[in-house]
Protein backbone atom coordinates (compact mmCIF):
# COMPACT_ATOMS: atom_id res chain seq x y z
CA UNK A 1 0.00 0.00 0.00
CA UNK A 2 1.37 3.40 -0.96
CA UNK A 3 2.36 5.89 1.74
CA UNK A 4 2.16 9.64 1.19
CA UNK A 5 4.33 12.41 2.63
CA UNK A 6 1.62 15.08 2.77
CA UNK A 7 -2.16 15.27 2.96
CA UNK A 8 -4.52 18.04 1.88
CA UNK A 9 -8.25 18.67 2.10
CA UNK A 10 -10.28 21.05 -0.07
CA UNK A 11 -13.70 22.14 1.10
CA UNK A 12 -15.42 22.89 -2.20
CA UNK A 13 -18.33 25.18 -3.12
CA UNK A 14 -20.63 25.48 -6.11
CA UNK A 15 -21.76 29.00 -5.22
CA UNK A 16 -22.27 31.27 -8.24
CA UNK A 17 -19.71 33.90 -7.22
CA UNK A 18 -16.07 34.42 -8.23
CA UNK A 19 -14.63 33.69 -4.78
CA UNK A 20 -17.08 31.51 -2.84
CA UNK A 21 -16.63 31.89 0.93
CA UNK A 22 -17.08 28.12 1.25
CA UNK A 23 -13.77 27.32 -0.45
CA UNK A 24 -10.97 26.34 1.92
CA UNK A 25 -7.72 24.38 1.75
CA UNK A 26 -5.57 22.91 4.52
CA UNK A 27 -2.67 20.46 4.50
CA UNK A 28 -0.26 18.65 6.78
CA UNK A 29 2.74 16.33 6.70
CA UNK A 30 2.73 12.73 7.83
CA UNK A 31 2.92 12.43 11.60
CA UNK A 32 1.05 14.57 14.10
CA UNK A 33 1.70 18.17 13.03
CA UNK A 34 -1.31 20.47 12.95
CA UNK A 35 -2.86 20.97 9.50
CA UNK A 36 -2.18 24.49 8.20
CA UNK A 37 -4.65 26.54 6.20
CA UNK A 38 -3.44 27.82 2.83
CA UNK A 39 -4.78 31.36 2.50
CA UNK A 40 -4.11 33.26 -0.75
CA UNK A 41 -4.71 37.04 -0.72
CA UNK A 42 -8.37 37.71 -1.37
CA UNK A 43 -9.39 34.11 -0.80
CA UNK A 44 -9.75 31.14 -3.12
CA UNK A 45 -11.52 30.85 -6.43
CA UNK A 46 -12.26 27.55 -8.14
CA UNK A 47 -9.78 28.24 -10.98
CA UNK A 48 -7.09 29.14 -8.44
CA UNK A 49 -7.61 25.82 -6.68
CA UNK A 50 -7.40 24.07 -10.06
CA UNK A 51 -4.08 25.84 -10.67
CA UNK A 52 -2.82 24.81 -7.22
CA UNK A 53 -3.61 21.18 -8.00
CA UNK A 54 -2.05 21.31 -11.45
CA UNK A 55 1.09 22.90 -10.03
CA UNK A 56 1.50 19.97 -7.64
CA UNK A 57 0.83 17.57 -10.51
CA UNK A 58 3.61 19.24 -12.54
CA UNK A 59 5.98 19.04 -9.56
CA UNK A 60 5.15 15.42 -8.84
CA UNK A 61 4.38 16.24 -5.20
CA UNK A 62 4.04 13.27 -2.85
CA UNK A 63 0.57 14.41 -1.86
CA UNK A 64 -2.86 12.84 -1.23
CA UNK A 65 -5.67 15.37 -1.70
CA UNK A 66 -9.25 14.92 -0.50
CA UNK A 67 -11.90 17.11 -2.08
CA UNK A 68 -15.40 17.36 -0.64
CA UNK A 69 -17.79 16.93 -3.56
CA UNK A 70 -19.49 14.07 -5.39
CA UNK A 71 -17.36 13.14 -8.39
CA UNK A 72 -20.17 11.61 -10.41
CA UNK A 73 -23.93 11.03 -10.56
CA UNK A 74 -25.94 7.88 -9.88
CA UNK A 75 -25.78 5.36 -12.71
CA UNK A 76 -26.14 1.83 -11.31
CA UNK A 77 -29.69 2.31 -10.03
CA UNK A 78 -31.16 3.13 -13.45
CA UNK A 79 -28.52 1.93 -15.90
CA UNK A 80 -27.69 5.50 -16.95
CA UNK A 81 -26.94 8.93 -15.53
CA UNK A 82 -29.90 10.33 -17.46
CA UNK A 83 -32.17 7.36 -18.28
CA UNK A 84 -34.32 7.87 -21.34
CA UNK A 85 -31.98 10.40 -22.99
CA UNK A 86 -29.97 9.22 -25.99
CA UNK A 87 -27.18 11.66 -25.11
CA UNK A 88 -26.60 10.25 -21.63
CA UNK A 89 -22.81 9.76 -21.15
CA UNK A 90 -21.41 6.25 -20.94
CA UNK A 91 -19.08 6.88 -17.99
CA UNK A 92 -17.91 9.52 -15.54
CA UNK A 93 -15.21 11.00 -17.77
CA UNK A 94 -17.77 11.57 -20.52
CA UNK A 95 -20.10 13.10 -17.91
CA UNK A 96 -17.37 15.54 -16.80
CA UNK A 97 -16.76 16.51 -20.42
CA UNK A 98 -20.49 17.03 -21.02
CA UNK A 99 -20.95 19.30 -18.00
CA UNK A 100 -17.79 21.26 -18.82
CA UNK A 101 -18.85 21.74 -22.44
CA UNK A 102 -22.36 22.86 -21.51
CA UNK A 103 -20.89 25.37 -19.01
CA UNK A 104 -18.00 26.52 -21.20
CA UNK A 105 -19.17 30.14 -21.23
CA UNK A 106 -19.54 30.34 -17.42
CA UNK A 107 -16.53 31.97 -15.74
CA UNK A 108 -14.79 30.62 -12.67
CA UNK A 109 -15.72 26.96 -13.29
CA UNK A 110 -19.31 27.97 -12.63
CA UNK A 111 -22.44 26.33 -14.01
CA UNK A 112 -23.92 29.19 -16.01
CA UNK A 113 -27.10 28.00 -17.73
CA UNK A 114 -26.38 24.26 -17.56
CA UNK A 115 -29.37 23.65 -15.34
CA UNK A 116 -31.67 25.31 -17.86
CA UNK A 117 -30.47 22.97 -20.62
CA UNK A 118 -33.65 21.16 -21.79
CA UNK A 119 -31.73 17.88 -22.09
CA UNK A 120 -30.36 18.00 -18.52
CA UNK A 121 -32.80 20.05 -16.42
CA UNK A 122 -35.61 17.46 -16.29
CA UNK A 123 -33.47 15.15 -14.13
CA UNK A 124 -32.91 17.65 -11.30
CA UNK A 125 -34.85 19.24 -8.51
CA UNK A 126 -34.07 22.90 -9.04
CA UNK A 127 -34.61 26.23 -7.23
CA UNK A 128 -38.04 27.76 -7.46
CA UNK A 129 -39.87 24.54 -6.67
CA UNK A 130 -39.00 23.04 -10.05
CA UNK A 131 -38.97 19.26 -9.90
CA UNK A 132 -37.96 17.88 -13.28
CA UNK A 133 -40.25 15.44 -15.03
CA UNK A 134 -37.43 12.87 -14.98
CA UNK A 135 -36.27 13.50 -11.43
CA UNK A 136 -37.71 10.05 -10.98
CA UNK A 137 -37.41 9.52 -7.25
CA UNK A 138 -39.43 10.16 -4.17
CA UNK A 139 -37.96 11.87 -1.16
CA UNK A 140 -34.31 12.83 -1.41
CA UNK A 141 -33.54 11.69 -4.95
CA UNK A 142 -31.37 9.05 -6.58
CA UNK A 143 -28.16 7.93 -4.85
CA UNK A 144 -24.87 6.46 -6.00
CA UNK A 145 -23.87 3.09 -4.58
CA UNK A 146 -21.31 4.76 -2.30
CA UNK A 147 -23.92 7.19 -0.96
CA UNK A 148 -26.33 4.35 -0.19
CA UNK A 149 -23.48 2.46 1.50
CA UNK A 150 -22.62 5.54 3.57
CA UNK A 151 -26.20 5.74 4.81
CA UNK A 152 -26.45 2.00 5.45
CA UNK A 153 -23.28 2.09 7.55
CA UNK A 154 -24.66 4.94 9.66
CA UNK A 155 -21.86 7.25 8.56
CA UNK A 156 -24.03 10.20 7.64
CA UNK A 157 -26.96 11.36 5.53
CA UNK A 158 -25.23 11.41 2.14
CA UNK A 159 -27.30 13.52 -0.25
CA UNK A 160 -28.32 13.11 -3.89
CA UNK A 161 -26.49 15.32 -6.37
CA UNK A 162 -29.72 15.57 -8.39
CA UNK A 163 -31.10 17.86 -5.67
CA UNK A 164 -30.13 21.52 -6.10
CA UNK A 165 -32.27 23.12 -3.40
CA UNK A 166 -32.27 23.24 0.39
CA UNK A 167 -29.57 23.83 3.00
CA UNK A 168 -28.09 20.33 2.59
CA UNK A 169 -28.00 20.29 -1.23
CA UNK A 170 -24.74 19.14 -2.79
CA UNK A 171 -25.68 19.18 -6.46
CA UNK A 172 -24.05 22.49 -7.40
CA UNK A 173 -20.79 21.51 -5.71
CA UNK A 174 -20.86 18.20 -7.56
CA UNK A 175 -21.48 19.74 -10.97
CA UNK A 176 -18.86 22.46 -10.61
CA UNK A 177 -16.52 19.82 -9.21
CA UNK A 178 -16.98 17.82 -12.41
CA UNK A 179 -15.67 20.80 -14.35
CA UNK A 180 -12.57 20.70 -12.15
CA UNK A 181 -12.14 16.96 -12.72
CA UNK A 182 -12.38 17.45 -16.47
CA UNK A 183 -9.55 20.00 -16.22
CA UNK A 184 -7.42 17.56 -14.22
CA UNK A 185 -8.05 14.52 -16.43
CA UNK A 186 -4.81 13.07 -17.74
CA UNK A 187 -2.71 15.38 -15.57
CA UNK A 188 -3.59 14.47 -11.96
CA UNK A 189 -4.94 10.97 -11.15
CA UNK A 190 -8.33 10.74 -9.45
CA UNK A 191 -9.14 7.56 -7.49
CA UNK A 192 -10.90 5.23 -8.27
CA UNK A 193 -11.27 6.40 -11.88
CA UNK A 194 -7.49 6.10 -12.09
CA UNK A 195 -5.26 3.58 -10.28
CA UNK A 196 -3.14 4.77 -7.37
CA UNK A 197 0.14 5.94 -8.94
CA UNK A 198 3.51 4.78 -7.64
CA UNK A 199 4.54 8.42 -7.15
CA UNK A 200 3.18 11.94 -7.44
CA UNK A 201 -0.13 13.39 -6.24
CA UNK A 202 -3.49 11.64 -6.10
CA UNK A 203 -6.95 13.13 -5.59
CA UNK A 204 -9.83 11.33 -3.84
CA UNK A 205 -13.42 12.31 -3.17
CA UNK A 206 -14.15 12.61 0.54
CA UNK A 207 -17.10 13.50 2.75
CA UNK A 208 -16.04 15.74 5.63
CA UNK A 209 -18.89 14.39 7.74
CA UNK A 210 -16.94 11.12 7.89
CA UNK A 211 -13.96 12.99 9.28
CA UNK A 212 -16.08 14.59 11.99
CA UNK A 213 -17.58 11.26 13.02
CA UNK A 214 -14.16 9.60 13.08
CA UNK A 215 -13.06 12.45 15.35
CA UNK A 216 -15.73 11.61 17.91
CA UNK A 217 -18.48 13.98 16.77
CA UNK A 218 -22.01 12.65 17.05
CA UNK A 219 -25.04 14.51 15.81
CA UNK A 220 -23.90 17.91 14.53
CA UNK A 221 -20.72 17.51 12.49
CA UNK A 222 -20.02 21.17 11.70
CA UNK A 223 -17.28 22.57 13.95
CA UNK A 224 -18.27 26.18 14.45
CA UNK A 225 -16.42 26.46 17.80
CA UNK A 226 -12.58 26.47 17.71
CA UNK A 227 -12.50 24.49 20.94
CA UNK A 228 -14.54 21.72 19.32
CA UNK A 229 -12.12 21.64 16.40
CA UNK A 230 -9.15 21.34 18.77
CA UNK A 231 -10.85 18.43 20.57
CA UNK A 232 -11.63 16.71 17.26
CA UNK A 233 -8.02 17.05 16.10
CA UNK A 234 -6.79 15.58 19.37
CA UNK A 235 -9.12 12.62 18.80
CA UNK A 236 -7.31 12.07 15.49
CA UNK A 237 -3.91 12.29 17.24
CA UNK A 238 -3.16 15.64 15.61
CA UNK A 239 -1.82 18.76 17.27
CA UNK A 240 -4.33 21.63 17.15
CA UNK A 241 -2.15 24.43 15.79
CA UNK A 242 -2.52 28.15 16.39
CA UNK A 243 -6.01 29.68 16.79
CA UNK A 244 -7.60 30.70 13.49
CA UNK A 245 -8.84 34.30 13.67
CA UNK A 246 -11.14 33.65 10.70
CA UNK A 247 -12.51 30.33 11.97
CA UNK A 248 -15.67 29.13 10.26
CA UNK A 249 -17.16 25.73 9.44
CA UNK A 250 -15.56 25.56 5.98
CA UNK A 251 -12.04 26.26 7.21
CA UNK A 252 -12.63 23.82 10.07
CA UNK A 253 -13.79 21.16 7.60
CA UNK A 254 -10.58 21.59 5.58
CA UNK A 255 -8.36 21.36 8.67
CA UNK A 256 -10.14 18.35 10.13
CA UNK A 257 -10.39 16.67 6.72
CA UNK A 258 -6.62 16.85 6.21
CA UNK A 259 -5.95 15.34 9.65
CA UNK A 260 -8.50 12.57 9.05
CA UNK A 261 -7.15 11.75 5.58
CA UNK A 262 -3.68 11.35 7.08
CA UNK A 263 -4.98 8.56 9.32
CA UNK A 264 -7.52 7.01 6.94
CA UNK A 265 -5.01 6.67 4.08
CA UNK A 266 -3.16 4.00 6.06
CA UNK A 267 -6.20 1.69 6.30
CA UNK A 268 -5.99 -0.83 3.42
CA UNK A 269 -9.68 -1.76 3.55
CA UNK A 270 -10.73 1.79 2.65
CA UNK A 271 -8.92 1.46 -0.69
CA UNK A 272 -10.81 -1.76 -1.50
CA UNK A 273 -14.52 -1.44 -0.62
CA UNK A 274 -16.29 -4.71 -1.56
CA UNK A 275 -18.92 -3.01 -3.73
CA UNK A 276 -16.39 -1.09 -5.83
CA UNK A 277 -16.14 -3.05 -9.08
CA UNK A 278 -14.13 -1.72 -12.06
CA UNK A 279 -17.38 -0.96 -13.91
CA UNK A 280 -18.78 0.99 -10.96
CA UNK A 281 -15.48 2.83 -10.48
CA UNK A 282 -15.57 4.07 -14.09
CA UNK A 283 -19.15 5.28 -13.83
CA UNK A 284 -19.89 6.38 -10.28
CA UNK A 285 -16.55 6.47 -8.49
CA UNK A 286 -16.51 6.16 -4.70
CA UNK A 287 -16.25 8.27 -1.57
CA UNK A 288 -12.95 7.44 0.10
CA UNK A 289 -13.63 6.36 3.68
CA UNK A 290 -16.95 4.60 3.00
CA UNK A 291 -16.37 0.87 3.62
TrEMBL record:
The lineage of its organism: Bacteria, Pseudomonadati, Pseudomonadota, Alphaproteobacteria, Sphingomonadales. Keywords: Signal. This is DUF429 domain-containing protein. It comes from the Bacteria. Residues 1-18 form the signal peptide.
Amino acid sequence: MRRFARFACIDWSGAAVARPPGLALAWCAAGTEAPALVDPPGGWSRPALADWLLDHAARGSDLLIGVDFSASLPFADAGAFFPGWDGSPADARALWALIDARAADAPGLGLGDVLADPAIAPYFRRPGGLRGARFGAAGGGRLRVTEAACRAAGLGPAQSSFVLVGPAQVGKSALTGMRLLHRLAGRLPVWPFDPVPARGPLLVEIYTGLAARAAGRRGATKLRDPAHLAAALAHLQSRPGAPDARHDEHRADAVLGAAWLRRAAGQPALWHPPALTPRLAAREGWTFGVP
